[in-house]
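Running this now, will post back.
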Amino acid sequence: MEYKIFDSELKILEILWESGPLSAKEVAAAAAGQVGWSKTTTYTMLKKCVEKGLVERTEPGFLCRALPTRAEIEAFLAQGAE
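Update: finished.
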């Protein structure tokens, strides 16, 4: 990974790591409850995560799943802090 991971992207990953694959609608509901995001904000963040290769979105139902594991992201973030 050669890009910065923003806190908002980590929130999306956290939701997916905790719940497993979810539809975009379910991610939006979780984000609304956890961080107060609107559906539009969540969909925008999901789109950015998909573009960065952090989230895979498949049909039917726009099912989303985190591609990197929590351990992979933690190692990446720790590497950047050195």
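Helices lie at 7-19, 24-35, 39-52, 70-81. More later if anyone needs it.
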